[in-house]
C-alpha cells in the first residue's frame, strides 16, 4: 500500500501543515453522501442516532477546512461541504440532519459549523440563497431553546450564535451572555477550569486543547472586542495554563495520554495553535518558536503512527492503532476528526510571527520557569520530566458520569507519554483487567477486581528538607471496610527513572492484591515473537525473581517493579495482558507484585522503574545506561519516612535495599 501522505509529512512549515490538512480531507470524499451532508466513516455505533453520527463526519473536518479558507487558501473539495450545509439544514432534503432536541449530539457538531460561518462565511454563507440561509439560521438557532449539559458543551452554543451573528443572521445575545456566565464558574485557578459540576475534579484535555481553553481563545480572537474585560481575563488564564500545560508534553513531541476522548489524537496539542490565533502575548520563557515547536513536534510524532488510518485513508477510532476498548460510547467513526482543531493556525498567513518563527527545542533547563517536577494542585497531578519521558503522578480525578474504563482513564497512579495506559478488555481475570500503574484488590479469589476509581480525599504536600519533593496523597475505599492511603513520590534528583508508592492498607476482609508497573511491549523487535527470559541474544527479555520484575524491550525500553515493603515481600511476576488493552502498544506485559493478605493493617512500599528506549542509540551501549539507572540510589523526604511507620529509612541503593530485605527473610 502507498503510505498515507500524512505519514510522510515533515511538519516544518505552514505549507506542510496545509498539505497535512488536505491529506485528511481528501479521503472523506469516497464516504460522502450525494448531497454532501452525511459522511459515513465506518459502521460502529454510538448511544445517539446514526444521522447524528454521520453529521459528525461532516462537521468535524470543518475545523481544518474553515481555517485554511480563512487563511486565504483554496481546497478543491470545499464545494462538497457547502452543498452539505445546504442539504443538512433543509427539512425537505433526504439528508436533513434532524431537528435539535434537548442534550442532542447535534449541539456538539453545531460548534464547528458555527466556527465555519464565523471565520469563512465568505465561502460558506455568502454563496447561499435567502431560503438556504434561512434554513441554516433556523437549524442552528433552535438549540437556544433546548436544554444543554452544564459542561464544555455551553461553548458549542456560543459558537453557533457567534457564527450566526457574523453572518448577520438571527442569533441570541442573551444565550451567549448566560452561557459565558455559567462557564466562568468552572474556573478553579492558575488557568485551570473544571469540566463539569461541583463535587467532581475532572481536568483533562477538555480543560485545555479539546474544548475550554481553545474555545476561550477563539472567543478572544473573534468576539473579545465585544467584552474587553472578559477577553483580558481569558488571555491571562491562557498564559497561566500554558506554563502548566507545557509539562504534559515531552522533548520528542509526545503528549501524556490521560482521561477520555483520546481518539481525538493530535487535538491534544491544539491549545498551542489557538494561542497563536488569539495572538496572546506569551509569558516567559515561552516564545513563538517554542510554541510552534510544541505543536509541530506533536504532529511529527503522530505522523510516525501509521496505524491510525484505515486502509481507505480515513482515521480509525483508537490511539496509535484501531482500538474500541479505549473508546467511549459517544465515539462514532467520525469522532476522531475533532483532531482537526490542530489546524487552527492555518487561519494565519505565512507572515504571522507564529509561522515566521524558527522552531525552538522543548523549553528545558534554564529556559523553563518551573522545575522538572511540579505539583499542580488543581488537576491533582505531579508532572515529572525525568528518565527520558514525561509522566504524571495522579490522584483524585474522575469523570462526572459513568464511563467505560473510567478508572483506567482517571484513576491510575501514573500516566506516561512513552508507555501509554491500559484499559480493561473484560472483567473476569487480571489479564483482562490489565492493571498497569494500579493496585488491584479482589475478595473472590481473583475472579473480579477493584481499583482506585474515586477518592475520599486527595492533596499535594511539599516536603522540604534535605530532599524537597511534592508528594501526592489520596485515600480511597474499594469497600466500606477497606481503606487504602496511597502516597505517590516522584523521582529524586539522583534516581530519575524510579518513583515510589506507599500504600497503607486497613482491611476487615481477606484480599488478593496485585500492583502493576508501566505496561510495555512484550514482543521482540527482532522477530515479533513473545519475549523470552532476559537476557536473550538480543539483550531483550523478561525477568522475575522473588521480589522484583522487569521487562527489557528494544522497541519500548525498560519497565520494572520492586517490592520494598517492610513487613513481607510480595511475589513478583510479569503479567501477559490481553491483546489491545494498551492504547499505544497492542501486545503488552506488565511487571507486577502480588500478595494475599488477611484482615489487618499493612504497609506496601513499591519502587517503579521506567526508561523509554531512545532512537538512534546503540542498543548495547544503551543497555549499560539502563542498568546503571536501575542501580542508582533513590531517596525520599525524611519527613515522609517519619510519617510511614516501619519504612526502612536512609538513602540506600536499590541493591542494598534488596539485600537488607533478603537478610530479613532469612532471619
Which parts are unreliable, with pLDDT below 50 for 5 consecutive residues or more? 648-653
Principal-axes geometry comes out as: globular
User: On the 0-100 scale, what is the average pLDDT?
Assistant: 93
CATH topology of the largest domain: Glycosyltransferase
Number of helices: 18
Radius of gyration: 25 Å
Based on the structure, what is the oligomeric state of the protein chains?
single chain
DSSP strand content: 15-25%
User: How many strands in all?
Assistant: 19
Strand order of the largest sheet: 8-9-10-11-19-16-15-14
End-to-end separation in angstroms reads 64 Å
- Please give the CATH architecture of the largest domain: Alpha/alpha barrel
The helix-and-strand class reads alpha+beta
CATH class of the largest domain: Mainly Alpha
Protein name: DUF2264 domain-containing protein
InterPro entries: DUF2264_C, DUF2264_N, UCP014753
Domain DUF2264: 13-361, 372-641
Pfam families: DUF2264 (PF10022), DUF2264_C (PF20938)
Summarize the structure.
The chain is built from 18 helices and 19 strands. Residues 648-653 have low confidence and may be disordered.
Note down, in words, how this protein is organized:
The protein has helices at residues 14-25, 50-59, 62-70, 78-88, 105-124, 130-141, 153-166, 173-184, 212-223, 228-245, 270-277, 288-303, 353-356, 406-410, 430-433, 619-631, 638-643, 654-666, and strands at residues 187-189, 192-193, 373-376, 381-386, 389-394, 414-416, 439-442, 457-463, 469-479, 482-489, 498-507, 511-516, 520-521, 541-544, 548-553, 557-563, 571-576, 588-597, 600-612. The strands form four sheets. The protein has an eight-stranded antiparallel sheet, with no helix packed on it. Strands 7, 12, 13, 17 and 18 form a five-stranded antiparallel sheet that branches. It folds into two domains: 5-367, Glycosyltransferase (Alpha/alpha barrel), CATH 1.50.10.10; 373-666, Distorted Sandwich (Beta-galactosidase, Chain A, domain 5). 30% of the residues lie in helices and 18% in strands. It is globular, with a radius of gyration of 25 Å. The chain is α+β, with helices and mostly antiparallel strands and 667 residues long. A hairpin with a 2-residue loop joins strand 1 and strand 2 (192-193).
